[in-house]
């Protein structure tokens, strides 16, 4: 249609005497041609963007994954939460270690699977214990003064961390699928990698060192525990990571597994991919840039570094 309109319009130039009278026809033809191209471009772009936007959602229904072979950008930094993202540690790691600590101290406290799931809405182990005891009552063997109770909680958490690290060092808890792959892709491309967690720094370092290996560990920056005064969902830990790494928050992609982690990442101005974990599968991830059940290794790969880069292209996300 476009070529026909253009050739007819050009034909009017062969007769000088007809040029003026046919000018309106020529201009009308060009405008029609322009409208056709514009409509075609917009339709194609809309279809393309809708496809990209729908892919993460479609994965919830079991599709294989999303890869982008030639991204126009890569993240400046790839930031991982630890528990539930690198390793699904909560139910059979942290919870067990808390319970073993309570048993050692003869506190008469047991956190079952469902209760611990509720307690995970509170970021940080010390904060979690404090909130629980404030609500249910402090154990008889605990001190009465506020400062003494803080020291008591700190001692419980220290022992719990020691027990948890023993589990990690025995490699009883494996890395989640795709974690090694995505970290290796980032390091090979010069993308900075960090782990940002509310957990104790020693526990996070043990996971990174024991399960990812010393070569990777020395290239991965860790921000954890009390390195910031306010924990997730406060964005402080992600703001600190971006500042320390010397990158713009808007160029960072975060991998989280929980609603409070997602809130922290978005409040810091970062893109966030959620990989659901055992305790967080039913949480609200409406504000996530993408949601998957895991990162995944080939042939069950859900996404790769190129997909992370594609999120930085504003037109790809709603």
Poorly predicted runs? 1-63
Mean pLDDT: 82
Q: How far is the N terminus from the C terminus?
A: 34 Å
Number of strands: 6
Question: What does this protein structure show overall?
Answer:
With 318 residues, the chain is an alpha/beta fold. The chain contains twelve helices and six strands. The protein has a six-stranded parallel beta sheet, with helices on both faces. Helix 1 (2-11) runs antiparallel to helix 2, helix 5 crosses helix 6 (146-169) and helix 6 (146-169) runs parallel beside helix 8. The protein is globular. The model is unreliable at 1-63 (pLDDT under 50).
How is this fold's topology laid out?
Elements (H helix, E strand, L loop, with lengths): L1 H10 L4 H43 L18 E4 L9 H15 L8 H7 L5 H12 L9 H24 L9 H10 L3 E6 L3 H12 L1 H4 L2 E5 L11 H10 L6 E5 L2 H9 L3 E5 L14 E3 L12 H6 L8
Parallel strand pairs: 1-2, 1-4, 2-3, 4-5, 5-6
Helix pairs in contact: 1-2, 3-6, 5-6, 6-8
């Amino acid at each position: 249609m476009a070529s026909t309109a253009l050739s007819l319009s050009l034909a009017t130039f062969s007769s000088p005497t007809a040029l003026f009278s046919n000018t309106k026809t020529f201009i009308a033809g060009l405008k029609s041609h322009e409208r056709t191209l514009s409509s075609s471009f917009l339709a194609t772009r809309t279809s393309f963007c809708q496809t990209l936007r729908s892919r993460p959602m479609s994965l919830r229904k079991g599709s294989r994954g999303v890869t982008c072979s030639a991204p126009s950008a890569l993240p400046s930094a790839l930031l991982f939460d630890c528990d539930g993202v690198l390793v699904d540690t909560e139910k059979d790691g942290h919870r067990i270690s808390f319970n073993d600590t309570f048993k050692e101290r003869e506190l008469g406290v047991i956190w079952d699977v469902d209760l611990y799931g509720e307690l995970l809405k509170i970021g940080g182990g010390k904060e979690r214990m404090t909130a629980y005891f404030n609500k249910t009552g402090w154990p008889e063997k605990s001190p009465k003064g506020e400062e003494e109770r803080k020291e008591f909680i700190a001692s419980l958490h220290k022992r719990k961390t020691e027990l948890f690290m023993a589990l990690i060092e025995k490699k009883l808890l494996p890395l989640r699928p795709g974690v090694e792959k995505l970290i290796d892709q980032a390091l090979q491309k010069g993308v900075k990698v960090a782990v940002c967690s509310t957990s104790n720094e020693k526990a996070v370092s043990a996971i990174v060192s024991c399960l990812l290996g010393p070569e990777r560990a020395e290239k991965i920056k860790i921000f954890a525990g009390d390195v910031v005064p306010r924990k997730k969902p406060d964005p402080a830990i992600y703001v600190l990571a971006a500042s320390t790494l010397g990158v713009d928050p808007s160029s960072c992609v975060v991998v989280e597994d929980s609603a409070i982690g997602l809130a922290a990442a978005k409040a810091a101005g970062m893109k966030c991919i959620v990989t659901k974990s055992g305790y967080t599968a039913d949480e609200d991830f409406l504000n996530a840039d993408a949601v998957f059940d895991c990162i995944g290794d080939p042939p069950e790969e859900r996404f790769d570094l190129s997909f992370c880069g594609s999120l930085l292209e504003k037109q790809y996300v709603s």
